[in-house]
Amino acid sequence: MLKYIVKRLLQMIPMLLILSVIVFLMVRLIPGDPVDIMLGFDVPKDTKEIERERLGLNDPLWEQYVRFLGDILHGDLGTSIFSGKPVMEELANRFPKTLVLAVGGTFVGAAVGILLGIIAAVKHNKLADNIIMVASLITVSTPSFFLALILMLIFCLHFMWLPSIGMNSWQGAILPICTLGATAIGSIARTTRSAMLDVIHQDYIRTSRSRGVPERVVIYVHAFKNALIPILTAVGLRFGGLLAGATLVETVFSIPGVGRFVVDSVSNRDYPAVQGSVLVLATTFVVVNTVVDLLYAAVDPRVKYD
């Protein structure tokens, strides 16, 4: 196990290195000059040139990348061009909100999606199965911003039960989490149904039933336990998707999270902010998937990492 953990941690190094190169080049392909956006188009060219020189934007790309990589190795993600604050400080203020949304949305999506997937598998080709599959298709197809607006219209404007903007209290987190969770329910339910259908027709399940084991034990203990690996994979992937894809929800509910920070940074051509934010999100996603891989052995003793 320890050997496998070390191997996965070492694999993260080239992965993140390649990602840093891609992000570094991509942000510089965005049309527009950050100095023009920061100072305005009416500022004299000499003043702009001095600012570009101060920010190091006139240096060759390879020199800018080496400086960027060296700062990362020292734990420095750079300074935001737009706000003048360290990117690490900006992310430290915003990342907890995005993490709460991603964890909450994953929990809601996993709890409801797994339950619906099990019911759909047990009621295979029956009315309940068809209803759940149609509902899951609808949740997967519905854009998160549209669902957020509908929930806001119902619970904020009509019933006035919950706040419509911000996340300053636990009430303010309910609608954003439910919005993200609803988008995850469909995919997790379909994965659970498929995994359960592969298991419940196995010989050992029929043997358990013939021995008089209660149906609830057969389904929720024997079958579900052996179907957990693809379900864990789906949940882990959805967490990464929600972590990086909460931008629209954060925008609709005016939540100052990482996703909204990235969008604002792209609009302002804030190179250090975009680079640092994407790297932090990517590192979190890789770590979560590594943890999911390690959980395989905990849920299925047949999995060996040697």
Give a description of the structure:
The protein is an all-alpha fold and 306 residues long. It has helices at residues 2-28, 34-39, 45-55, 61-73, 87-122, 127-141, 144-158, 170-199, 203-210, 215-226, 228-244, 247-252, 258-267, 271-299. Helix 5 packs antiparallel against helix 6 (127-141).
- Name the average pLDDT: 81
Strand content: under 5%
Which consecutive residue ranges, at least 5 long each, have pLDDT under 50? Answer: none
Annotation, overall tally of beta strands: 0
- Summarize the biggest pleated sheet: none
Anisotropy-based shape: globular
Derived from helix and strand composition plus strand pairing, the structural class reads mainly alpha
Q: What is the rounded Rg?
A: 24 Å
The percent range for helix content is over 70%
The N- to C-terminal Cα distance equals 7 Å
Helix-strand topology string: HHHHHHHHHHHHHH
Quaternary arrangement of the chains shown?
A: single chain
Number of separate helices:
14
